Amino acid sequence: MARPIDILKRYFGYESFRPGQEEVIDTLLEGRDCLAIMPTGAGKSICFQVPALLLPGITLIVSPLISLMKDQVDSLVNQQIPATYINSQCSFDEAKQRFAAIRAGRIKLVYVSPERLQNEFFSSFMQTMPIAMLIIDEAHCVSQWGHDFRPSYCAVKEWLARLPRRPVVGAFTATATEKVKADMMNLLGLQNERVFIGGFDRPNLYFRVVSPADKTMFILAYLQRHKQDSGIIYAATRKEVERLYGELRRRGVRVGKYHAGMSDEARRKAQDDFTYDNVDVMVATNAFGMGIDKSNVRFVIHYQMPKNLESYYQEAGRAGRDGGPGECILLFSRQDIMIQKYLIEMSVQDPQQQDKEFHMLQRMVQYCEGRHCLRRYILTYFGEEPSWQRCEKCGNCDQETVEEDRTFEVRNICQCVDELKGRFGLTMVCDILKGSQNAKVKRYGFQNKSSFGLLQTYSGPEIRDMVKQAVEDGYLEQSEGKYPVLSLTASGRDVLAGNCQVVQARVVAPPEAEIDLPKRQVKKKASVIDEDALRPLFDALRARRYELAQREHIPPFVIFSDATLWEMAAQKPLSLEAMAQIKGVGDFKLNKYGNQFIHVIESYIQNQR
Fold first, then answer.
1. Of the CATH numbers 3.50.50.60, 1.10.150.80, 1.20.1560.10, 1.10.10.10, which one belongs to the domain with range 521-608?
2. Distance between CA 312 and CA 310 in Å, rounded?
3. pTM (two decimals)
4. What is d(CA 452, CA 199) in angstroms, rounded to the nearest whole number?
């Protein structure tokens, strides 16, 4: 009998599993239910596709989006894995042929939407078939506390109960709170399940928060430097998507747009254009969410701050799914906070849920405004405790800083907060310290406070940064909710009493025109490869991949990922034996495409002589 590692090498072209994959696969093969919470890009699909090829009978995958089904089935069929999907886009004849193929045992993986489980004919048909596994993809959709609630997922448990023989059940999602995790286990009817929570770190992603004076000009400058890369730009509203899309298109960018206000057909075409590399950049709202299986996304830019870290990390995680380098940039301004508060007020009516949303928004703001290691902040938010304090490979860790004695400033900040008795927030504290004569300060008589104007020699933004740093350093505490207020901590009272010195790191910021990301590098085992030197051969390999994809009517990344092409460019294999050692080149793809890519490499080498 074939082993999981044999299937992985033969069909998928990898010599070893990614962390966490093998344990999930072994659990499913043992006939035991499982819940796997693994970040975007961790290789969740492999976890059920490998056992599906080893177990007798069929594997049924419940997937929320038609586009996701199509991409995954296209990729599997391209690797000569017998897979199909049944959804509303299938014609009567197509559906008839697919049911016949399933009945004849020619199909191993069947993708359907959760709504399909409520179809009487489908249910009756599946009750006659040997179902080895039922896989629930994007399983967080079962919970109203998740961010993609789909009521049809609640039909899974009842559907399972009607089967003559219960299959193994696997539930997969990228992120989940404790509440969502409990809902998934209960509402999906998991039994004697094992729960796997994979490491959330994505070492190939570079995170940065930038506050440019003009966000659009920043994006235009960034795209000018990354003309050949595929990426996503997320905006908070449809209006902003339309404006930004129009601006980029006028500047000659190969750009598409996607939001819920577009027709189904327009959205389908937009996603296809992006998937098939007909456009380089997609400007979208978060409606462009689940179902993006495109592996060669090199950057994700958030034009505005998302409402919570769960959404941000899932969206940003669409960069670098092939294991290659990805850049995740969040363009932040204070106005973003007001936009997200407004959207929460308009979309969430339940007071308890609204308070929860405001709390998560506050954590998102802290991510944007803090000087902490961005990667560490994300990981601790999701319950991990990294062994390091600084990752040295995010925007904050890369910043040049100098240490300064800020005892005087922090003591004055603590004095102001103490005088306000925990009744006001950051804006009022800053106004008082600046010595502002605005109406609100005068209404409460705060111009008579002893702390009034104590930091008037500093600019408003400088005072705000110092107060936020005092919160981050633990001298102040900020409450939760829609209107957070500030209060002193025990450490803050020590500063106020003159019992300790405060040393803070000040960022030495480069001119805005110089703000850019480090030169992208491609990692190969222990070495690092210079992308600039490999770019000409990579482009030639990519052009051949695009030609083949056009001919076969499949997305280019289905043939080979960018990471695989970069490794080809670095290793320059000139035989099928050498090509077989490239990560991502399985037996079927080697026989189907190997010689064509070898010819590109041979031509390139000859032209270099």
1. 1.10.150.80
2. 5
3. 0.76
4. 48
